[in-house]
Model the fold of this input.
Amino acid sequence: MKYEGNITKMRSEYAYPVKYFLSVGEDEINMNSLINKQLIITYQHKINCIHCGAETNKSFHQGYCYSCFMSTPQCDAGVLRPELDMSHEGISRDMEWAKKNSLIDHYVYLAITGGVKVGVTRHTQIPTRWIDQGAMKAIRFAKTPYRNLAGQIEVDLKQHVSDKTNWSKMLKSKGTDLSLTKIKEELSDKLLPNFKTYLSLNNNIEIFTYPFEYQIDSFNTVSFENIETISGKLIGIKGQYLIFENGNVFNIRKHNGYLVSIETQ
Done:
């Protein structure tokens, strides 16, 4: 079977294990069904902006042309750093977009990827955000009515816990004995008093399993920045990474908008 088209980050469905689907042009591939099969992904030397469709020599902010990177609300500073979002004060590249994406309930969360991390996400992105980061467990820490406030709480917590995912540790991790409930309690005590009113009473712990059962000691990231064809036996998927038997891993999200052909054997 052969597919050709621009790719975007994999869609996921919360299941045991997580189910993954990759859009390639007009087609959507059930990626779980390709595990343990030979896969050949070939770059066609073309990138299209995932917002306007224009051809671009370089991808910005994981899939945008430079013009869209500089103008669209999806690429505003407050997307990567929620504490910089100013839509609650009426400042935004697009207030209508902000009303639907920034001026809505947000969660500050704790997740175990390779280690414990703190993050921020819109309520509509649960559990997708956790799956995209390859979390094994996640818990809601605080709930806020808009993005900037969630970002402020995240900044406060970053004194005690990282906001980054170590991709290598994430891929190697198969289980954890860490208690998110206990960690939440400890961090709640350290939170600035003016933020404690937003603490979430929901202590439910979401648990995730992924279609990846092998143990690999080391990984090598491969990218179309330096090679044209990525091939090998697909043995698993975690986060937005395709994992091959030879230890190569391919980050789909990083290649949003890339035109590729995909062959299965």
